[in-house]
Design brief:
248 residues; mainly alpha; Alpha-Beta Plaits; globular
């Protein structure tokens, strides 16, 4: 197991969680503040960040979710005592509804304001108190932990995260266009079907079956590398380039 890579990943997640305690960090990821800014015709910091996440996902997929998301840090902490696999299926589509409603409200608010006519990255920096910051953090924990307990690891990533569809759309685009990107590659011949990759996938994906098909491209994959680092035969690897799909 490549423990060093996972230590680095978890350290980055912990760092992002610490930064989440600071108001400026909230400013750049608040979905609510994006709506408030749009109602005044302003492109705020969070809208800029979400646009950058889209652009980044065109080359790095959902690596942000696995390596940098503050919510991911809470999810990783939950995985220490929650081992239940999340059911992957139709319920995954709920997050698209959440995203569509959020994006629709932003669009409507911007329309009511006569369109976007200003860019203010620091919009709203004076709007929250420390109490509100604490309540926001508490709210994130209250949402993420019960969902994980009820439905399994990273349930909020599967079902509720409004940011996931932004990166998934970009991932679909890069898969369709076929340009170089960060991805996982599989060697079906090296797979011993031990199930280690399935057990350690935080997104509860059928990794072993995907390896046997020689295709590890999945929009729900967060490129955390757990399957890579727990594979005893090296059948799964990181790669950067145009994904090659094979059949076993």
């Amino acid at each position: 197991m490549n423990t060093n890579r996972q230590r680095i990943r978890k350290s980055l997640l912990a760092l992002m969680f610490v930064l989440f305690q600071y108001r400026l960090f909230h400013l750049f990821f608040s979905p609510v503040l994006a709506v408030v800014a749009a109602s005044q015709g302003i492109v705020n910091g969070s809208l800029i960040i979400y646009a950058l996440l889209f652009l980044g996902a065109l080359f790095f997929g959902r690596a942000w979710c696995g390596w940098c998301c503050a919510g991911g840090a809470i999810n990783d902490a939950c995985s220490v005592f929650i081992h239940k696999r999340c059911r992957v299926g139709r319920a995954d589509k709920v997050k698209y509804v959440v995203f569509a409603v959020w994006a629709g409200v932003i669009g409507y608010m911007a329309y009511r304001a006569g369109g976007f006519h200003a860019i203010e990255p620091l919009f709203g920096i004076d709007r929250r108190s420390h109490l509100q910051d604490i309540l926001l953090l508490f709210g994130a924990v209250v949402i993420i932990v019960p969902l994980a307990l009820l439905w399994g690891r990273r349930a909020n990533c599967h079902y509720l995260c409004w940011g996931a569809p932004i990166m998934i759309i970009a991932t679909r685009i890069k898969e369709r266009v076929g340009w170089p990107c960060l991805h996982l590659t599989a060697d079906p011949a090296a797979c011993k079907d031990c199930g280690s990759c399935d057990r350690h996938c935080p997104m509860s994906l059928p990794v072993a079956a995907m390896v046997q098909k020689g295709n590890l491209q999945n929009a729900e994959c967060i490129l955390c590398g757990n399957c890579v680092d727990h594979c005893p035969t090296g059948a799964i690897r990181f790669a950067f380039g145009v994904p090659k799909r094979t059949r076993s």
